[in-house]
Task: inverse folding
């Protein structure tokens, strides 16, 4: 077990060690320490302040589940906002939709975007140079408060709701209200929600906040290997409800919008929705 | 991050650290080191030779998925054999079926059974003293080779197919054939299969071995929090196929056989079957 | 590297993992978590709140160096006070001196003393039942402030000067002054001082505090294997200076006072005094 | 404790975690994985196959103790051979002696030398371009067997005697004999010997091998912070004995040969020689 390892948190006192093969780049931005590490079992990994954000071999699980449920739920997603998502992989997924006319990605840290452009090519896969894409370097909160524009889909690709303070504010009910205010009539919000097993209270709080603003929400989770846990996602909508979309309708929408995926499908997604939430009673 | 930790493997070079609160018992048997550890996030944990076997807070996910698919698939499971399973939790689950007349658990290590009886009460929940249960202390291979008896369901509750050598032999095709030989006509085998993501070749080999003997098999996986991965299970049958069982039929069988579960249900199980296998291309 | 480990700190971001064989006792006192762990390479280990205090195989290095320099420096040590030292090993060392008439050990945590009496027999080696020994369960600060009595030697066997807050107060100059006030005319104080390499500022502050009160002090360090570093010790005296004691005089005093040691001797100690302090420039 | 760490071994089942700040270079040579890591507490670190070789903040302790005892013991060291030592720091130290006319460094891995030249500037400090220095890329064994030349001092700057197989062969008695054969009449050999505490048998075997060939040898040890232990060194001579050199004579030789050191001195070295060996009884 000797050598260079990335140590990351799974739960509160549960950790994961990932063996590194080499470190590709290591840079300190104004906001955080940015490391791109090539690992034995996960290929290339993006690590921000010691927290694994996503990895080459399994980022598609995460980014497909973060974006497609919201994107298929919306009847005609043309304008998409991504908060965070510096790797460009959420952007890559939403740009797969030929309905999309404009996708704005707002990340606070330009350095992360630059590192991604150069070193995480399989993540963005050219998305940054898509003419429909715009990258804004700004705090997501400030952007949402100042922007006049409305969006059909908002994707929150941020650190965990129980993670670094800077992102926590974006999960609070007052900000969710503001987000709701920049949504079009059938607008949909999608967010990752960390692990409901290790952080049940924080997860519940986020879900309640979304329910308070949107009435009803859908939640599901899927194991993301490099996270060490089943990652929860929550989708809230001002229009349709996810539970009303049939397997066939999901597949039809993906097809008609020109979207090809590796993991996400009508069948897989309906299955994920049917699996009970992982819960741990606090002790 | 100071204090006492259990370090266990997730993948080949990926590890998990679980913070211990106290060590309840620590004993060396003829076969292995047996530790029962109370942890911060998983409650009580059974550790054999440094490998987490199961934990108080999530063993029910594992043991329900290991036993119920096979038990509901069989039209009338009366005689059940468990290989391994020293904690007594697989035994607890199969004894929930009022159809069961006899459940034989064969574990090589008497000390594990003794430690479980005394310290893992919520695991066996009295199963060891059920009059239908018999515990045999013997190598599973020897038992299967010598036993005259036939069984309706065989549950393999052993260490991973890519784990310690002692259990590996029980996953090989020649032993699977012997197992098939002690099954009744509609007999069903269920086994855990470790992680198909980190050990795709070893997983495939086990699955191919079962397919070679049984024709077709069903596989599914579910995240087990204390394992750090989505654990695969494979069910092989000489009779019905799992895919033919409807959600309603599964629930009906559970009900009619008097079985109450926490996680397993027709709906959950059909969903698990629908989720694609996690795969990592070796590099 | 699988199994149960004790993780402890060496420096600020440098850690040590010690493989456990079994945990002998694990108890939460009013003040702290107390674990006695049998390890692969250090035998039995006492761990308080995740910090290794001392181990069976190398505690004699630590306790001999903590006590004998002060005990040989004093012309006739009759009354000795130990602050902390719950294991009873510092007590064991000072009671080796036939000059000693009374040795008071003041530890805040009765549970540590009880655990030591039962499980750390080679540490105290019967010292607790020596008629000259008295154990007081009390905060060292309160004891020093209230006690009328004076002592020839005070041994500070506490957690590190940069460690848990509870002990830090006893290293501050104002408390050192109070300690000086309960010393007899030729009184000597000895304290462990953690690692001057990883915590140069904290070490310097403690040394300066002792110098401010006592004029001149002697410092030295020696590698303690289970600490992962060369542990510093500081001796301050109201009488003689350590540097004036010759190798032969140290050995003569040990002999005439009936003291047998395993590591400490005139030769070893003069050598330790001659080795420059380990220093790391902060960066 | 999150982030990137270097995990290295201290003993057999005792490990050290060093927090990395960034990885400067990460390269696989024909022989090994070479990582240069900037760490929080040790500055820049050279890691070969996951083993810390030396670090910016404490390499001088190691390299001074590895070279100067042998260099001062020899009456007039003119020709020096270094086996291993790719960082160039042992070379730097021996070139401090104005008596030295030729210093040959033989390292098997050219890539280590190249990485050192570029990234470990404070280690070699220009030694590689000293006209007296020659670097030979070759297996030390082959070099010693084929070289016609004789040397006054041989410095063995290799991985531990109980470490990777490639270096182990150079510690065996038959190779020591060959080394003795390329020494001039008053020739001296110096080697690091790892930790006598955690590996007493391996240490003893090496020491016995040297004694068998050279009659008598001198051994001492000093804590090297980044190793987590007191590192042993052994010096064997065909001429004078180290114990016969007085403190003053050592200082005089250093001075007259133009050598300035940071840690090594007559006083420090005589002290190190006086400290008993750290020993752990195996259990």
Result:
């Amino acid at each position: 077990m000797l050598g260079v390892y990335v140590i990351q948190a799974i739960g509160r006192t549960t950790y994961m060690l990932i063996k590194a093969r080499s470190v590709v780049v290591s840079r300190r931005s104004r906001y955080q320490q940015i490391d791109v590490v090539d690992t034995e079992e996960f290929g290339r990994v993006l690590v921000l302040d010691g927290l694994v954000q996503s990895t080459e071999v399994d980022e598609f699980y995460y980014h497909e589940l973060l974006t497609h449920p919201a994107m298929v739920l919306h009847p005609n997603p043309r304008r998409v906002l991504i908060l965070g998502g510096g790797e460009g992989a959420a952007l890559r997924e939403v740009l797969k939709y030929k309905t999309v006319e404009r996708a704005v990605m707002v990340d606070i840290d330009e350095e992360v975007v630059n590192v991604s452009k150069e070193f995480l090519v399989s993540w963005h896969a050219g998305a940054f140079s898509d003419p429909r894409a715009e990258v804004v370097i700004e705090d997501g909160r400030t952007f949402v408060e100042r922007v006049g524009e409305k969006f059909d889909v908002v994707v929150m690709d941020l650190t965990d709701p129980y993670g670094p303070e800077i992102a926590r504010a974006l999960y609070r009910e007052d900000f969710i209200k503001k987000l709701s205010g920049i949504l079009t009539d059938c607008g949909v919000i999608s967010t990752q929600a960390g692990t409901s097993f290790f952080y049940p209270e924080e997860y519940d709080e986020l879900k309640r906040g979304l329910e308070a603003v949107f009435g009803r929400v859908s939640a599901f989770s899927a194991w993301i290997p490099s996270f060490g846990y089943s990652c929860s996602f929550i989708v809230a909508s001002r229009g349709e409800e996810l539970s009303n979309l049939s397997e066939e309708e999901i597949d039809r929408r993906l097809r008609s919008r020109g979207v090809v995926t590796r993991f996400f499908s009508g069948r897989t997604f309906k299955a994920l929705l049917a699996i009970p939430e992982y819960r741990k009673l606090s002790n």
In short: The first helix of chain D runs from residue 59 to 73.
